[in-house]
Design a protein that fits this description.
258 residues, 16% strand, globular, alpha/beta, two-stranded parallel sheet
């Protein structure tokens, strides 16, 4: 049974960082529900491969979000081709694990330029067009690190902390003008890039033992919350971050028997 409350059919959706992992699966969720989806990535080949995999009404674009000129070009192209952007999914992001004192200035800038500066100017460029229409939805992919930072990824955690403040600030400014802005914070999600890490027995055991649902997440676990945030079902929500983390942020598990 179809419920219009949760419908995203005929939406024009831009997925920044949509060629692989979480971005690709979120794009798939919208394609399967009748949306027109544009996926962007830093290289030309991965969006084309993703489009072939997804099928449906999918278009591709090359965009390095660390370059504001790229962002402006891609947003203008999407508007010219499709007339509007109903939903922005800001997914593009990078990470690097090492001790805080080991990060070079270039490594720090690389993470912040994509995760925070790039996300900000993508939100702003898309937001300008949404403001002209007086309607729109933005969903910025946050992180479990904004609940509790992990050691070894401080620049990444800093970038996501800034992203959460950006989400709240834009919601505050744009709400009266018809734009909703929310965040989605995945927990530990198995992707092609993370499966090797989580296949290590000690990591797998730690992840399962600290999740109330006693498992790690799959990328498909994020689709329902994203569709909810993009649909009329969340019409009175803005400035919020939904943690889709298997309950990790509910509290800390400790090894006692109850």
């Amino acid at each position: 049974m179809s419920d219009e409350l949760f419908s995203v059919s005929d939406q024009v959706v831009l997925v920044s960082g949509g060629s692989r992992g979480i971005g690709r699966e979120l794009a798939r969720g919208f394609v399967q529900r009748g949306a027109c989806v544009v996926i962007s990535s830093r290289d030309a080949e991965s969006p084309r491969e993703a489009a072939d995999d997804l099928g449906g009404n999918v278009h591709t674009a090359v965009c390095d979000v660390s370059k504001p000129d790229d962002i402006q070009r891609v947003v203008e192209t999407v508007i010219a081709d499709h007339g509007r952007i109903d939903t922005l999914l800001n997914v593009a992001g990078v990470n690097q694990r090492q001790r805080a004192e080991a990060f070079t200035v270039d490594e720090f800038d690389f993470i912040l330029d994509i995760n925070l500066k790039g996300a900000y100017f993508m939100a702003i460029e898309v937001g300008k067009h949404m403001l002209e229409h007086g309607a729109g939805c933005q969903i910025h992919v946050d992180s479990l690190n904004t609940y509790s930072p992990l050691k070894g990824v401080i620049p990444y955690a800093m970038s996501k902390g800034g992203l959460q403040m950006m989400t709240r600030g834009l919601a505050l400014e744009w709400g009266p003008r018809g734009i909703r802005v929310n965040g989605l914070a995945p927990g530990f999600i198995l992707t092609d890039m993370t499966r090797k890490l989580w296949s290590q027995p000690h990591m797998n055991s730690w992840g399962i033992n600290n999740s109330p649902l006693e498992r790690l997440g799959e990328v498909g676990d994020l689709v329902g919350a994203t569709i909810f945030l993009a649909s009329k079902a969340s019409a009175f929500m803005t400035g919020q971050t939904l943690y889709v983390d298997g309950g990790m942020s509910a509290g800390t598990n400790w090894p006692i028997e109850l």
